[in-house]
Request: fold
Amino acid sequence: MGWTTRTDVNGDIHVRLSGYLDTKGGVNSANEVLRLFAGQTCDLVLDVADMTGYDRGARQAWQGLLWDHRGLIRRIVMVGADAGVETTGRVIARHLGVPLSMVPGDRSVDADAPALPLRSSSCAHTSISGQDPTPMHDR
Reply:
């Protein structure tokens, strides 16, 4: 699983997730989002167009780690989600009590706010040996 994070000129946090998100990747990427919060409300934009699946533990990590910071999330925007990942986004947004917007993968989310990597980090992560690479929604 690969993931990258960045903030744009408006302070919104962008996360691009690709491949299969295992529990470790879920914990690491959610912790990186926490690091990027600047104490002001922002949109959390998740580009999941290239995501193939996830572990339940990855979803639980995002829900649990973002819980105390949910007041800083204006809304979650999911870009390019398939039906299974969209459902997970709805579960996370409902759990956190924040609105969720869905955007098709072929549309730009921040046309008004050029995405400048003010702070960025990334992790190219491969699945742990023995990990079931089957997308969660296909199990």
Remarks:
- The first helix runs from residue 23 to 36.
- The chain has a mean pLDDT of 83.
